[in-house]
């Protein structure tokens, strides 16, 4: 679902299952003996905003506060120009990168955003614009610690330097970036990385420095290289690689080539090797500097994300031009956020970009391709069903919690490399409207079904493995049941926890049931207090050895149950909201006190994820204290599979974890017979000629 | 280099073959060789209890569990392809005769489309016939290789290995004389 915007820029909303975030093949070695490969498959929607403009983004109806990330890259600065051929010119700095996670937004809300415009070439290189998401209507349009945006990344500076070492374009500064505090609290971690600084020009050599690469999710942008200070055979500096990449090379006096561009975070992509105009970088690598009297190469476009039409990522810096006695151009910065190279005419900075990712609330069947190193003899596939939603808020009676998703695992599944397997990630149950609208059930999560078979767990048309989703709460007083082991398919199976019952007399909500996990059944959410003016129940802790139920609400909200390690349950509120279950513990959210909301269930951490975070069975959300308005809500279920606290909470999404010990794939056949000979037919007779 | 022992038996019965290899009718290439005097074997493997006829030698592969008779004027070359894969070629360059056997670990009962595509990227597969090689069901077909041109292929699976026997199409007659000597050991 996308539409083209002006020029080559695209506003795109894809509804697709992706391997989030970008590389979930964690630690997959080529030669495997003891190591294992792990693939964690989740279901996300992603929107990428690339049009350099200030506009609004309408929060979709299925926005998930508990499972989102917003990443931004500032625009690159332009390189300096030296049209009078009097001196060299420096490149522009790369844009910075910032990321916030679990940003609270309201469906239908119009969020003001700005994608920074790339620095243009002028009387001195122009700065790249800041890129931000979410600011006040009258607030500043640059990154501001006093008027905080939800997330903001500083643009790279344009250069106003020629042969001096001052006023050289600096990379966008991470310290000026803004991230949503809520992201830090969630424990997934918020990240800020600076753009690369530009390389300086040289007056004697009359040449340009390289532009800086933009920051990205994998690190700081590489710096641009310095041009060669030689009167007879100058060489432009190379552009820096995109986020996590290396710095561009500096020109070498005796070299007949422009300096190479820096590589991207994967160690490749830098432009190099040309004795004339510099080669452009690829995949976020920096552009090569131009050789004597030649243009610099453009920075490569990054590839960390994809919008289905083309890759999107942190861009490399443009290479610098050399010997301005002729009309040489600095290379443009790579998309997105790369700084332009210096030249007789400097290169442009690339615009910024915004990447919005959030959990998908629609369960869709998708295909997974079996990797070539799949091992039939040593694998495990685990699934957790999604958590159920809770009954909607606004009624005058209690609100029960949703049930947690079941867990199921299967071992040593026989799959053929290259084959495609149908799977579904269960979408969490939701609720809409005000009043007694039932929460919807969490969807089942399965891996491997027949092309025309059912999409729910079935013993008649069994999937390879399937875990039932938790039921949504449809009652004021009776919580939704958890997905059951009996209705799931697999070898090891556990049942999700049941949502806590609301209390009609006290008008308090029950906590959500937690997801089952590899360690055992999920736990029940605590019931709401029977007394008006008291609190809601706590969510259950995710299933495991030392997990426990959520506590019943009392004078304060009930505490959330601890997760598998016996820790992490959120605290019930006292004249306050219940706190969130501790991220990474699977603890249940604390119940809210009177007129306060319940806390979100904590995410689990049984499996290694990325950036030091974990994925696992999620705790249930805490229940609301005195359910009387839409402003008081139960906590959402934790990831993955936690049930929602009553009222108005959403269940956590399901997940699939595929673990196997890779084998070296058998090679393809080679043709060794008559190797080294060429076969010919002469007068109908076959002869061999040595090649 | 005629090798007269063995007979080529075409299976009329198709039913078992329908469950195997591309669902085509069977052609049996297996033949009973009987007990014959032992002669030679390669140093890489021990001899079996049978003897090749004059002008022939026996190639024995203990790791890959088979033996085959081949004309003595052919040169044998072995290639370790890694990850358990192996190629042995039998060549007489001056007379333009020869064939190769590619062996790869394979735990499926049938050749998957993915494996076929991996080994024959051209995807060419014509005149398919089901065959048996010393009791192992397989398939014979024509294909095309980028370097060799038109080829004759005989593929079969046995006890965890896929065997792909290949020669030039003009040499298929020689191959069909040799294959009946195949024995799994």
Task: Outline the secondary-structure elements.
The complex is a heterodimer of chains A (691) and B (185).
Chain A: E1 2-4, E2 10-15, E3 37-41, E4 44-49, E5 54-58, E6 68-73, E7 97-101, E8 110-114, E9 131-133, E10 151-153, E11 178-179, H1 181-186, E12 191-193, E13 305-306, E14 311-312, E15 353-359, E16 365-369, E17 379-384, E18 407-411, E19 420-424, E20 445-447, E21 465-467, E22 492-494, E23 607-608, E24 614-615, E25 655-660, E26 677-682, E27 685-690
Antiparallel strand pairs in A: 1-2, 2-4, 3-25, 4-15, 5-8, 6-7, 6-15, 7-12, 8-9, 9-10, 10-11, 13-14, 16-19, 17-18, 17-25, 18-22, 19-20, 20-21, 23-24, 26-27
Chain B: H1 15-18, E1 26-28, E2 56-61, E3 66-71, E4 75-82, E5 85-92, E6 97-105, H2 113-119, E7 126-133, E8 136-145, E9 149-158, E10 161-168, H3 172-178, E11 183-184
Parallel strand pairs in B: 1-7
Antiparallel strand pairs in B: 2-3, 3-11, 4-5, 5-6, 6-10, 7-8, 8-9, 9-10
H and E string of chain B: HEEEEEEHEEEEHE
Q: How many strands, what sense, and barrel or not for the largest sheet of chain A?
A: 7 strands, antiparallel
Tell me the number of helical segments of chain A per DSSP (H or I, 4 or more residues long): 1
Average pLDDT over all residues of chain B: 78
Tell me the count of domains of chain B: 1
Report on the architecture of this protein.
The complex is a heterodimer of chains A (691) and B (185). Chain A has 691 residues and is mostly beta strands. Chain A contains one helix and 27 strands. Helix content of chain A is 1%, strand content 17%. The two termini of chain A are 54 Å apart. Mean pLDDT of chain A is 82; it is low at 1-34, 181-189 and 609-613. Chain B is built from three helices and eleven strands, in the order αββββββαββββαβ. Chains A and B meet through strand 27 of A and strand 4, strand 5, strand 6, helix 2 and strand 10 of B.
């Amino acid at each position: 679902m996308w539409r083209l915007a002006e020029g080559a820029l695209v506003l795109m909303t894809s509804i697709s299952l992706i391997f989030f975030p970008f590389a979930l093949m964690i630690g997959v070695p080529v030669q495997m003996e003891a190591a294992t490969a792990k693939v964690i498959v989740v279901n996300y929607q992603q929107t990428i905003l690339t049009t350099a403009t200030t506009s609004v983004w309408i929060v979709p109806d299925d926005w998930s506060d508990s499972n989102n990330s917003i990443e931004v890259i500032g625009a690159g600065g332009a390189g300096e120009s030296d049209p009078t051929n009097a001196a060299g010119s420096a490149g522009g700095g790369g844009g910075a990168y910032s990321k916030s996670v679990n940003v609270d937004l309201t469906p239908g809300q119009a969020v003001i955003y700005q994608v920074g415009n790339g620095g243009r070439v002028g009387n001195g290189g122009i700065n790249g614009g800041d890129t931000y998401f979410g600011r006040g209507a009258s607030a500043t349009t640059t990154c501001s610690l006093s008027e905080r945006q939800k997330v903001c990344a500083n643009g790279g500076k344009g250069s106003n330097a020629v042969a001096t070492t001052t006023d050289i374009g600096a990379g966008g500064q991470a310290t000026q970036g803004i991230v949503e505090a809520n992201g830090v609290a969630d424990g997934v971690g918020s990240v800020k990385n600076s753009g690369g600084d530009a390389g300086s020009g040289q007056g004697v050599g009359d040449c340009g420095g390289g532009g800086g690469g933009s920051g990205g999710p994998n690190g700081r942008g590489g710096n641009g290289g310095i041009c060669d200070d030689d009167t007879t055979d100058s060489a432009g500096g190379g552009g820096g690689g995109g986020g996590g990449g290396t710095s561009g090379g500096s020109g070498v006096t005796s070299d007949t080539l422009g300096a190479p561009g820096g590589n991207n975070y994967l160690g490749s992509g830098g432009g190099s090797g040309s004795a004339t105009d510099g080669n452009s970088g690829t995949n976020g690598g920096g552009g090569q500097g131009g050789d004597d009297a030649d243009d610099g190469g453009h920075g490569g476009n990054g590839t960390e994300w994809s919008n289905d039409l083309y890759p999107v990522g942190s861009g490399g810096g443009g290479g610098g031009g050399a010997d301005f006695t002729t009309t040489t151009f600095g290379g443009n910065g790579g998309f997105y956020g790369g700084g332009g190279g210096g030249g007789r005419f400097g290169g442009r900075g690339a615009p910024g970009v915004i990447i919005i990712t959030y959990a998908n609330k629609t369960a869709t069947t998708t295909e997974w391709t079996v990797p070539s190193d799949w091992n039939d003899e040593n694998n495990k596939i685990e699934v957790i069903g999604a958590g159920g939603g809770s009954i909607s808020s606004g009624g005058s009676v209690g609100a029960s919690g949703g049930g947690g998703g079941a867990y199921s695992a299967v071992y040593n599944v026989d799959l053929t490399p290259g084959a495609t397997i149908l799977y579904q990630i269960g979408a969490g149950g939701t609720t809409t409207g005000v009043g007694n609208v039932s929460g919807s059930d969490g969807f089942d999560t399965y891996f491997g079904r027949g092309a025309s078979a059912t999409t729910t767990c079935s013993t008649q048309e069994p999937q390879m493995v399937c875990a039932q989703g938790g039921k949504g709460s449809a009652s004021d007083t009776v919580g939704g049941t958890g997905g059951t082991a009996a209705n799931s398919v697999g070898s090891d199976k556990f049942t999700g926890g049941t949502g806590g019952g609301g209390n009609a007399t006290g008008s308090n909500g029950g906590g959500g049931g937690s997801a089952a996990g590899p360690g055992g059944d999920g736990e029940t959410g605590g019931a709401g207090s029977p007394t008006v003016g008291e609190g809601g129940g706590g969510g259950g802790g995710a299933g495991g050895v030392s997990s426990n139920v959520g506590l019943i609400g009392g004078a304060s909200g009930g505490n959330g149950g601890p997760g598998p390690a016996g820790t992490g349950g959120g605290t019930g509120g006292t004249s306050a909201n219940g706190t969130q279950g501790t991220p990474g513990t699977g603890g249940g959210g604390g119940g809210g006190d009177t007129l306060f909301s319940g806390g979100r269930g904590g995410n689990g951490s049984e499996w290694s994820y990325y950036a030091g975070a974990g994925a696992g069975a999620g705790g249930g959300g805490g229940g609301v204290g005195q359910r009387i308005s839409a402003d008081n809500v139960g906590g959402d279920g934790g990831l993955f599979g936690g049930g929602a606290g009553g009222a108005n909470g959403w269940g956590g999404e399901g997940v699939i974890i595929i673990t196997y010990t890779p084998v070296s794939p058998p090679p393809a056949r080679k043709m060794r017979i008559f190797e080294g000979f060429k076969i010919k037919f002469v007068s109908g007779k076959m002869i061999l000629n040595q090649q | 280099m005629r090798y007269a022992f063995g007979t080529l038996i075409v299976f009329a019965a198709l039913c078992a073959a329908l469950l195997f290899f591309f669902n085509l009718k069977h052609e049996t290439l297996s033949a009973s060789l009987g007990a014959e005097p032992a002669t030679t074997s390669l140093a890489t493997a021990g001899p079996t209890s049978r003897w090749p006829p004059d002008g022939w030698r026996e190639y024995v592969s203990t790791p890959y569990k088979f033996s085959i008779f081949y004309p003595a004027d052919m040169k044998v070359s072995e290639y370790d392809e890694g990850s358990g894969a192996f190629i042995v070629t039998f060549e007489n360059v001056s007379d333009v005769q020869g064939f190769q056997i590619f062996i790869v670990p394979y735990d499926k009962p049938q050749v998957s489309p993915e494996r076929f595509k991996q080994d024959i990227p051209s995807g060419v597969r014509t005149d398919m016939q089901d065959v048996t090689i010393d009791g192992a069901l397989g398939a014979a077909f024509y294909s095309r290789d980028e370097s060799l041109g038109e080829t004759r292929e005989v593929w079969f699976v046995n006890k965890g290995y896929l065997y792909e026997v290949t020669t030039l199409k003009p040499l298929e007659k020689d191959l069909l004389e040799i294959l009946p000597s195949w024995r799994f050991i």
